[in-house]
Amino acid sequence: MAAFRSFRADRILDARLLGQDFRPQVLFKPIQTPAELLRADDPVIAKVAFSARIARWLKERYPNGHDAGDGRYVVTFPVADPAWFVREVLQYGAEAEVLEPEGLREAVRGAIGS
Length: 114
What we know:
- This protein has helices at 55-61, 82-90, 102-112; strands spanning 44-50, 66-67, 73-79, 96-100.
- By secondary structure, the protein is an alpha+beta fold.
- Strands 2-3-1-4 form a 4-stranded antiparallel β-sheet.
- Helix 2 crosses helix 3.
- It has 3 helices and 4 strands, in the order E-H-E-E-H-E-H.
């Protein structure tokens, strides 16, 4: 297969050095930014509203969000790994509410057992 592939380092179980030479492909493009490491072919787009109590800090961490008008700060996340998303949201406890999609909202609810 001539397609380029990306591998998640956390899923590599074993690696070993082989005696063969490696010749980089002519079309090879090295990664230029960290964001390229976190890309996914079909990410799900999720929206999370953070409470007014912590909005100030979330604006620093996620500057591309927007004010909801009620004091909350809404951030859009491209989600390739639902388990990562659940951990990301749960670190804020009751100060975060998943607005959409319903499937990720349920995943967070399921993680807290309610």
